[in-house]
Amino acid sequence: MGVKLLLDKAHVEGIRYFDVYRREGGYRSVEKALKEMTPDTIVEEVKKSGLRGRGGAGFPTGMKWSFIAKPEGVPRHLVCNADESEPGTFKDRYLMEFLPHLLIEGLIVSSFALGSNATYIYIRGEYAWIPDILEQAIEEARANGFLGKNILGTGFDCEIYVHRGAGAYICGEETALIESLEGKRGNPRIKPPFPAIKGAWDRPTVVNNVETLAAVVPIINMGGEEYAKIGVGKSTGTKLISACGNINKPGVYEIDMTISVEEFIYSDEYCGGIPNGKRLKACIPGGSSVPILPANLLLKTAKGETRYMNYESLSDGGFATGSMMGSGGFIVLDEDQCVVRNTYTLARFYRHESCGQCSPCREGTGWMEKILKAIDTGKGKMSDIDLLWDIQRRIEGNTICPLGDAAAWPVAAAIRHFRDEFEWHVLNPEESQRRNYGLAHYADAREVVA
Amino acid sequence: MSEQQLFKVTIDNITIEVAPGTSILEAARKIGGDVAPPAMCFYSKLKGSGGKCRTCLVEVSKGSEKDPRPMPKLVASCRTTVMDGMEVKNITSERVVDARAGVVEMLLINHPLDCPICDQAGECHLQDLSYEHGREGTRYEFQRRTFEKHDLGEYIQLHMTRCILCYRCVFTADQLTNKREHGILSRGDHAEIATYIEKSLDNDFIGNVIDVCPVGALTDRTFRFKNRVWFLKPVDAHRDCPTCSGQVTLWYRGDEVFRVTARKDEWGEVESLPDGTTAWICNTCRFDKKHTGDWVIEGPRKISRHSVISQGHYVGMHKPEETIEKVLHGRKPRLMMDIHSVSQVNQPNIDLSQIEGPAHSDDFNPALPKKD
C-alpha cells in the first residue's frame, strides 16, 4: 500500500461537508500557514517540496510561484485550472467531487502565498454538477471563517469564485483560460508576456491545476522536506492517475511514483490487469496528447530497464522510445484495439478543439483527420503515411500554444511505433474493415499469419 | 529619446541598430528586401495583430549578448522583440524555409484558388507568398471548406471561402469603429468571420477592412468584377474630407475612376500621415467619390515590391527572358512543329475531321501543297 496524501480521507462518509472534513483534520494547513508562516516561507516550502505541476507540463510549482511579478498597488490573482478536458484524464473531477474542501483549503493557502484576494476556479462546462458542490463548499468555508474578510483574524481577505467554462478544450491552456475568464473568446495569447507578469485583466496571475493546489495542503502540513522524501528523484510526492481503457479496475489511483508501470497495470491494488485474458498492446500513459507506447517499450525502456510511473522514467528515451507523464490519464489498449482507429479518434478530437487562430494547427489538424479517416476506412495510400508524418512535423513547435504539439505527437508516435499496422491497413483495405491487426511487430509470428 | 541606447541585431548576417522594443519583423523591414519575413496577419498599424499566420517564423540562433543561448523553437518575428546582440536567421535557415513552406501549404489547402475570378488577384499577399514559398501542386486530396457569400452592408462582400483567418479585419473593426459587430464564430477550421446576428457594418470607417484583408475575402462591392487591378493606373489624390485625412489612391482606367483605396506602403499597409496617425479613409471617400472632379490629383503612384499590379511598371524587377534562345543561353533548339500561332488551328477552312491520323503542321500551312 503506497502513501496516500490526497485521497487518504476520500472514503470517509460525508467528507464532502465541512464538519466532517474539519473533524478529520481539515483546514489545519490554513491555520498553520496564515498564523505561523509568511507568503515567502510558503513559497519556500513549496520549492523545497519539489512539487511539479500536475496539469501536464510538470513545471516546478514553487519556481512558477516565485516568478509572479509584484508591482505596487496592482492586485494579483490565482486561478485554479479545473478545465480538465484531456481525453483519458478525470482525476480532478474525482478530487473536486469527493474532496471539494481539500481544493478550497489548498486555494486559501496558495492565495495567501501569492497575495491573491480574488481567486478563481475555472471549471469546464461539462462538469455541470461540480460547481454546485464547490460553491456549497465555499459557502461552508465562509460561514466558518476560512473565507471572506479577515480570515481567522489574520487580516487576510480572500474570495473564491467559480467560473464555468463553455466547453472548449483549448481553455485548459492557461492564457486561453485567462481570455475566457475575462469573457472573451478563448484564444491562447502569444507569449511573452507570461501570465505571471500580465495575466487576467493585465494583472500578475498564476494558473495551477486542481491537483497541484490540493497537493499544497499536505506540503504545508508535513513540511516541504518531508514531502520531498516521498517519491523518487525529481518526481516528489504522490500523483493521481486516472486509469481507463482495457483494464479490470478503471478509476483514479493515488501513487507515490516509485511503482513500476508493470505493477500499476497488473497488480490488484491498482488496475488489476487486462480483462478477458487479453494481452497488452499499447498504452497512452499521460492523457491523449502524449506519445503512445507499444507494450515492449512501456514496461521496459529502450535500455532494458524497468519503467516506473514517474516523470523521468516515463520520458526516458525522449520521444523516440519514451513518452510523458502528462496529466496522468492512463489509457490502456489491449490486443483487440486498432491503433489507426485510435489515432483517428484523437485527430478528430484535436481538429474539433483547435481554436483556429494559427494556421498550421487550424488547417493541419483537419488535414490529418481526413487522411487518418481515409486510412481507417480502407481508402488510404502508402504515400499518405509519409504525408501524415510530414504534416505533423510541420505543425509541431510552429504554433502559438501547445495544442499543435498535442495534436502532432500522438500521430507521430503512432506512425513511429505502429507503422506496420498503418501499412497493413493500406495494403489490405477490405480485411482491415473486418478485423483488427492484433498485436504489432513484437507479436507471436503465428498470430500475424492467422 | 536620442539618448536611448540602440540594440544591435543581426538578421541573415546583416547587422542593424534598432530601438529597444522593436520586433524582429520591423527590424528586418528596415533592412528590406528578402530579409523581411512575409507577414499575412501582422499589421503594424493594428494593435494586437500578428502571431497567428506563422509565415513570419524565424530562427533565433543567438538570444542576446547576455544570454547567447538560441531559442529552441522558431519564433513569430512579428511578436518577438529584439534583444541586444540577437542573431536571427530568416532565409538563411533551412528550418525556417521548410516551416514556411509548410505554413503556405496549410494556408492553401482550404483556399479555393479562384484567382482568375477574384478581385484581389494581382495585389494578393497570399498569391505573392505562394509564388515565393509554395509548391507547384497540392497534396491535399479532400473537399475544400466552402461557405456562402455574405453581403456585409451595401459596400462590402465577405467571401469566407477565401479567408485565411488573419483577424486583421476583426482588429480593424475593433479599433477603428466604435461599436463592435464583427468577430469570429466557431473554432478550428470551421471558424468564420462574422457580424453578430447578420448585422451589417454601417460605420464610417468600416471600408478599411477591404484594405487590410490580405486575400480576397473582403471585397469592395462597388468595384466587384469591374476590372482587373493590373489594368488600372494608380494615381495619388486628396480631397478636403471632414471625416478622414482624404489622402487616397485613385485607380484609373482611361478617364474613369474604378476604385478608391487608401495609400499603401511597400508592405501593403496603409501609410502613416506626417503626424504619425494612419491614413485610414472613410466610406464616403472610398465608395462615393468616383469622379476626377472630386479630387485634387497629385501624380502617379509607383507600386513597388513583388506585387503583380501596375502593368510592368515595377521597381527593381527582373523581366523574364523573352525568347527560347535567350533562355537557353544562345543554343538554338530544333523545333518539332512549326505551328506558330494557335489561332491557325482554328481556321474554319480546315476541317479537322478530314485529316487522317494525327494532325501535322503541314496540314495548317497553306503555303504547302495539300497531301492527298
From TrEMBL, chain A:
Q: Which cofactor does it need?
A: [4Fe-4S] cluster; FMN
- Give GO terms: molecular function aspect only: 4 iron, 4 sulfur cluster binding; FMN binding; metal ion binding; NAD binding; NADH dehydrogenase (ubiquinone) activity; oxidoreductase activity; quinone binding
Q: What class of enzyme is it?
A: translocase
NADH-ubiquinone oxidoreductase 51kDa subunit iron-sulphur binding domain: which residues?
Answer: 340-385
- Which reaction(s) does the protein catalyse, per the Swiss-Prot or TrEMBL entry? a quinone + NADH + 5 H(+)(in) = a quinol + NAD(+) + 4 H(+)(out)
Keyword Protein biosynthesis found:
no
Task: Report keywords, A-Z.
Answer: 4Fe-4S, Flavoprotein, FMN, Iron, Iron-sulfur, Metal-binding, NAD, Oxidoreductase, Quinone, Translocase
Query: What is a single Pfam family found in this protein's UniProt entry?
Result: NADH_4Fe-4S
State which Enzyme Commission number(s) the record gives.
Answer: 7.1.1.-
The record, for PANTHER family, names: NADH-QUINONE OXIDOREDUCTASE SUBUNIT F (PTHR43578:SF3)
Q: What does this protein do?
A: NDH-1 shuttles electrons from NADH, via FMN and iron-sulfur (Fe-S) centers, to quinones in the respiratory chain.
NCBIfam families according to UniProt: nuoF_fam, PRK13596.1
Q: Record's family? A: Belongs to the complex I 51 kDa subunit family.
**Protein name in the entry:** NADH-quinone oxidoreductase subunit F
The organism encoding this protein is: Deminuibacter soli
Q: What is the lineage of its organism?
A: Bacteria, Pseudomonadati, Bacteroidota, Chitinophagia, Chitinophagales
Gene it is expressed from: nuoF
Automatic annotation (TrEMBL), chain B:
Which keywords appear in this protein's UniProt record, sorted alphabetically? Answer: 2Fe-2S, 4Fe-4S, Iron, Iron-sulfur, Membrane, Metal-binding, NAD, Translocase
Any stretches that span the bilayer, and where are they?
Answer: none
* Family statement: Belongs to the complex I 75 kDa subunit family.
**Coiled-coil spans in chain:** none
Molecular function (GO) terms for this protein are: 2 iron, 2 sulfur cluster binding; 4 iron, 4 sulfur cluster binding; metal ion binding; oxidoreductase activity
Q: Which GO terms describe its cellular component?
A: membrane
Stretches for region Disordered: 353-372
What organism is listed for this UniProt entry? Deminuibacter soli
- Give its localization: Membrane
Superkingdom of origin:
Bacteria
| Protein name in UniProt | Fe-S-binding domain-containing protein
